[in-house]
Amino acid sequence: MSYHIVCQADPSDQFAPRVRDTDTVYTVCIDKPGDPNRVRQSVVEQIAKRGVAPQTAASDLLRLAMTVYSADMGIPRSTGFDSWTRDFVLHLPVTEFDRWYATIGTATDMLMFLTGDHWVISLRQSDEDPEKNKRQTSWEGPQEVPQAVSLFSGGLDSFIGAIDRLEMGERLALVAHYGAGTTNKAQEQSHAAIEAVYPDLTEFFSFYVQPPPPLGGEPEKTTRSRSILFLSLAVSVASSLGDSVPLIIAENGLISINPPLTHSRMGSFSTRTTHPYFLDLYGQLLDALGIGVSIETPYRFYTKGEMILGVLNSDAFQAGAYHTLSCSHPDVSRYWGHSPGQHCGYCVPCIIRRSAMYAARLDDPSHYLLDVRNDPPPMDKDRGRDFRAFEMAMERLANADHQQLLFDVLDTGPVPPADASMYVDVYRRGMDEVRNFLRGSHVPT
All domains of the chain, ordered by start, with CATH? Predict the structure, then answer.
């Protein structure tokens, strides 16, 4: 069975493909107020109030990203032929048809790598007025035009990335994304901590994007495609600011390459949200579409702990670090009788975060619901799954040589040959941080 994902762009767009009786149509409406299948979002309004608009190709790309993200959340993986891989046909209206048609292979490869699904992209010419999203440059923000755009997830890495660029004297546009859940609180609080130290140097874009109701009532929880939405929101902002405005992705190398901890997590089961191969394909797509936004990943060869130890303003970092949120499922705290938005302490991001803070001698277990180092979770429970995976990985890697580590790095996807050794090294150092944390040992500083 194939899922036909139909993007309808505006109130006049009534496109409906002919499909087989065995196939299913899932409609995603981008700009159709009141439609039950609409994406609820604040993007256009927030950018427009600054007096600018993204270039047309960036608007087309954001439309693709919103539709893909909606499909990823709206179609359960359990319906795939292997209970994981789904077959998607994406029906996408675009304003610059010829440019999109020339790069359709890159776009398809990018989506397949990112989500682990099968994708076919069917383009059609949009009926929209091409002047509707023509880029404007009359910036009307309260401060000067930002010099760079940085993803601002509300986590530790993007918090450090913002501090470092601001310390270097740049004005930044910080782009956040949130939907249902508690993520927005961490983003607002961590931005407030930034603003307290660097007043009037940031322009904060906090975009609400919530997909239409999912098929079957419950949204898919894996959401592998969130990064393409996040990136495309930031590209929309960057392209509205002028030519050659860089997009900064402040993500540590261990998380970016995300080597599998166990054999069961290899292949498409490993998250690839900022993997270098995905970012390379995304960058190729930007170039082919004529979007003048370059992607910078300055921390790709740093561990999280190294990012903390190297932050350019340690006082600013420590003042706001615990306003940030790194947890995979912060809403789980409500089931423990706590308010939502707290770190669970036992997921992969929480364990890596605590390991990094421990390396910098800043770890405080009171900020986590479960203290995995002093009170390891039961191995037969869900909350012990990631802890056990780290234990198995550390045992497997105890005497691993360079070649074995390289195989792990390449299991999640290709990396540039010139960078392979550096990715192996950051993988080794990142896992050493986790080992030192769980074993209660410190590397001398």
Answer: 3-125 (no CATH), 136-296 (3.40.50.620), 329-439 (no CATH)
